[in-house]
Amino acid sequence: MRLLVVEDEQKAGEYLQKGLTESGFVVDWANNGPEGLHAATTSHYDLIVLDVMLPGMDGWQIVTELRKTVDTPVLFLTARDALNDRIKGLELGADDYLVKPFAFAELLVRIRTLLRRGPIKEPELFQIADLELDVPKRRVTRAGRRIDLTAKEFALLHLMSKRVGQVLSRPLIASQVWDMNFDSDTNVVDVAVRRLRAKIDDPYTVKLIHTIRSMGYVLEDRG
Amino acid sequence: MNRHGHSLTAQLGALFAVVAVMVFSAVGFYLYHALAVQLQERDEAELVERVLQLRHLLAETSDAGSIQREPHRFLDAVDVSHGLYLVIQTPGGQVLAQNTAERGFTLAGGAVAADVTPSTRHVVAADGGALQVLNAMGRVGASGEVVHISVARTAHERQEVLRAYRLKVWIAAIAGAMLTAAIGYFLVHRGLARVRALAAQAQEVTARNLDKRLNADAAPAELRQLADSFNRVLDRLQNSFNNLSQFADDLAHDLRTPLNNLMVQTEVVFSQPRDIEEYQNLLSSNHEEFGRLARMVESMLFLARADHDQVALSTERLDAAEELGMVAEYFEGLASDADISLTIEAQGEVWADGHLLRRAVSNLVANAVRYTPRGCGIVLAAVGSGAGTTIFVTNSGPGIDPAHLPRVFDRFYRSDQSRSSQSSSAGLGLAIVKSIMALHGGHASVTSELNGKTCFALFFPGPAM
């Protein structure tokens, strides 16, 4: 998957390129508006990560120009999050909008969501190592043994199963599981993950839920 | 001084002057005309008097010839030095007596019969002067001959009097107008002294002494309302100003703490080579501080926008129990870890923006979980009334000192200073609750008893009728 990052700030450009490359993408980086537009219109990219404030040509102008010829998904990055700015970005044809400061894990999730073009059918059954999740029956077993989960524990495990191998940030988990769309300084998510771990990991030698320091949690079989 | 609108005092002074000129002119004009009419009537009466006197003399005269022989008898009756002229002539035009050969005037119209009251007419004399002439018939006593008498008077004297009078009227009008304008200016100036005093008071108010107020009681009744309004503006300004400077102070302080942690701990780690795990610990710890800073910035942005009503509110009818249930589920794990029970006693509906409602209640519950002792409980309740719905978050605990109670919703206000480093954004949590309630047109309040129940109440008004 090829991504184009248009970002004028040196540090931001470097870490985006590094982080995204390490996450398995091929990343080109343009550090001003006209160069970004040129790259976006002359080469094929699967997705463009676009800063709004750019020298020469701002992100809104780029997306306006771009939409005349190509419909590559565009993810806006910006420090401006006034409602009008968001509406403007989306109206001009941006596909998503992420406000700085953001969690890198959050950026990865958004990029992957945009790349997964169109609605996909969500699987009803998940299997990670010996952990099995039956969504319609709301049933969880590990090594064949039934595990009782509360509704929110199930929702949390379901979310992590859908995103196996992806790091999920705490705000993302709070938003998806409890519909709490603000960053609170409570450790509610940590407590919930610990409780889930106590049920599905603690009794077993192979651990499936891993803590990624500073970033969040990931469900994956590292065995 | 380049201002729109001239001085009120000068305007009123000029207005007084104009009014005075108009009034004095009108009065002068009237008096002048009255005098002119009176003088004319006096002159006419005098001419009539002379004619009657001449008729009397004629009655005692033997014949027309004796008039001619002794004209002085008649001419003395009219006093030439007073500008009176006399011509007596026969109906045929033969002059019997006259004192005015050099002036000469025509007999305008026919003579008036002796038994008719004579009336005057104006004619212009040969030398161009205006004359008031009275023609009448007379009868010589003994012979019964008819003669024509013409008595005339120059208008000169009267016009002199009138001219002098006119000048006096003008001088009086102008002087009076000037005097009135000056007095008016002076009085208005004095009357406006209190306005200037108010302005001077207002001028003394600066950012440094926003506590100064206008003395509204000393202001004229018409300006008292203005002074009161001005004072209320100052009240609000002072309030905002104090909040703002306090906010800036607190903000600087609250940013310094995490920034200091970041700088110092990074410097310490870099001061000598360390193993990878220590670097990882540093980065992780730095990330925590960054998170605090990011949350603080987000909270402050939210508060700033809420202050300017820039937060889009999508108000809808919500089930109170359901919303509180979501918040309770969110804190379920945290509370049960702390051995705190979460109970919901709610029914009915609440008219609010779901996200903001949950945010407000979450902030309250997060605080409650922090302060509730093990084994105690937190109750989330909703009570509907005619005006709206009130959500209560009640917990047992140490309670809030009554001294702190009025300020708990202030930004960065912490009743417990020692906790400041522990819960970074707690200083803004309740301020955000207050802002969210203000956005809804409702309000937040708190009651607390030491070592008893602490109850936060959020009133959401019902849908506008």
Explain how this protein is built.
The complex is a heterodimer of chains A (223) and B (465). With 223 residues, chain A is α/β, with parallel strands linked by helices. Helices cover 39% and strands 21% of the residues of chain A. Chain B has 465 residues and is α+β, with helices and mostly antiparallel strands. Chain B is built from ten helices and twelve strands. The longest helix of chain B is centred in the first third of the chain and has 52 residues, at 8-59. The interface between A and B is medium-sized, with 25 and 36 residues.
Structure summarized in a few sentences:
The complex is a heterodimer of chains A (223) and B (465). With 223 residues, chain A is α/β, with parallel strands linked by helices.
- Show the largest interface: A-B, 25 and 36 residues
Largest sheet of chain B: 5 strands, antiparallel
The run of helices and strands of chain A is EHEHEHEHEHEEEEHHHEE
- Could you list the spans of chain B in which at least 5 consecutive residues all have pLDDT below 50? 418-425
Shape of chain B: rod-shaped
From the alpha carbons, calculate the radius of gyration of chain B and give it in angstroms: 53 Å
* Spatial sequence of strands, sheet with the most strands of chain B: 2-1-5-4-3
Distance between the termini of chain B: 53 Å
- Unreliable stretches of chain A (pLDDT < 50, length at least 5) are none
Q: Give the helix proportion of chain A (percent range).
A: 25-40%
Work out the number of β strands of chain A.
Answer: 11
SSE order of chain B, as H and E? HHHEEEEEHHHHEHEEHEEHEE
Tell me the number of strands of chain B.
Answer: 12
Global geometry of chain A: elongated
The SS-based structural class of chain B is alpha+beta
State mean pLDDT of chain A (0 to 100 scale). 88
Descriptors for this entry?
heterodimer, A: 223 residues, alpha/beta, four-stranded antiparallel β-sheet, 8 helices, 11 strands, B: alpha+beta, five-stranded antiparallel β-sheet, five-stranded mixed β-sheet, 10 helices
